[in-house]
Amino acid sequence: MSNARLPSFKFLLGFEAAARLGNYSRAADELCVSQSAISHQISQLEEQVGQPLFRRKGRGVELTVAGRLLLDSVSKSLEQLRGGLARIETYLDENLVTLVCPAPIALGWLQPRVEQLQKEHPLLCPIISIDETARYIDEMDVDIAITHEPLKQQGVFEVPLLSDELVPVCTSELARRLAAVPQEQHAQIVGLLCLEGDLTSERIGPHIREHFSALRRVAIYDDARLVLDAALRGRGLALVSSLLADDGLRSGRLKRLDAYPSLPLRTVWISRTEGEARHPLVRGVFDSLLRFSQEG
Asked: What is the pTM of this model?
C-alpha cells in the first residue's frame, strides 16, 4: 500500500481488537460499538489491503498469514502511539514550569535554589533543561528562559538577572595554605585548572597569561563543570564562572582568592511571556528568581 491509501485508524483499531480477542463480538464490546460495525470495518480493511485477514474458527476468528503480518505492524504502531500519549499526559500538569538555563548556571546558581523555590511555591514541579536550543518562549513550550543574551523575541518580557565574572577559586584548605605565604610562592603549592576555550579566548586568554602565568597548568578541560569539580577535589586553583562556583562559595567548600583579579563576563538575562502567563505559577517562579538574584 502507498501512503495515499493508508487504512482508516478506526479500521485498524477494530482489526487489532478482533485479532487480540479472537472474536468480533468481544472486540465490539471493548470498543463500545456494534458487532456489525466491527464486521463492516474489517471487511473494508480487507478490501483495501486486497486479501483476507481472518478466517472463521468455531465461534470466533483466527488470523490468516496476511493478518498476522499486519497485526505485527499495527500492534507496534499502537504501542508506540500509546507511549507517546502517555508521555504527553506528563505535561498536562499545570504545576509544571519549564525553565531553560545554561548548564553552568543551572548547576551552580539555580539548582541550589530549587528547594527555596518549592518552599515558596509548594505545588511547583520544575522542568529544568540545559538544552539552550529550546529557549524560544512558548514555541517550544518554554515558560522561563535564562540566557547569556537577550532573546529579543516579540511578545517576550526580559530583564537582566545576574552579572557573571571569571573568578579564581580553590578549596578552603588550599586557600589557607596560600594565605600563609607570599604570592610569588604560590606556584610551589598550587597549579592552575582552566577551561580550554578560555585559553584561546581573545578576551580571557590575555587575562590568564597576564595574571596566572606563574602557575603551572595542572589540568585543562573542555567543560566548565569539570573545572569546578577538579577545584572541589582540591586539585588546584580554578578559573570559573562566579555563577558556576556560587554554591561552593556560599557553602564554604570553595574560597575566592582575592590576591588574584577577577574578570567581568556577560550579563545573564531572564525571560518570560509578556503580560499574563499561561498560569500564575509561571509568574510566581519568575518573580522569585528575580528576587533571589537581588538577594545576592
From this structure: 0.70
